[in-house]
Amino acid sequence: MSKMYYQFSPDNLNLKTAIGIREPNVIRIPKVTGVALYGPYIDLLPGRYEAVIRFDPGTPCGGRAMMDVCATVGAERLTSQSITAEEILAAGMSARSEFSCPRPLHGVEVRLFGDWHIQRWHHRCRDQRRNLRFHS
Q1: Is residue 135 part of a domain?
Q2: Is 8 inside any structural domain?
Q3: Is 73 helix (H, G, I), strand (E, B) or coil?
Q4: pLDDT tens digit sequence for 116-128
């Protein structure tokens, strides 16, 4: 089975943030409530996927957030889960969410929002059939 990768650096404006501060190769998330990550609004074929947000292991994190994956620019939620700093630490500084696309979907985004303190993050999404990664 073939795998496909999409990669986005933190500097790529297809990955958006409402509360983050863009710096070269990093988005810093301050100690405020809000949307830390959303985007990149890509089209996906039917299949099984895994969204992975990887956080900088050298930067402490705390708080709780909600991670979800949506299609049609937020109109159709594919998966959603609450995550805590403890869960991120236990998972090697990452948060994962599996989801399926039952049909071709447009405007797919990964969102991270909540009351949160993570200063740096890296993000990627993988498909078990086509590997889809986002880096930021």
Answers
A1: no
A2: no
A3: coil
A4: 555 455 555 554 4
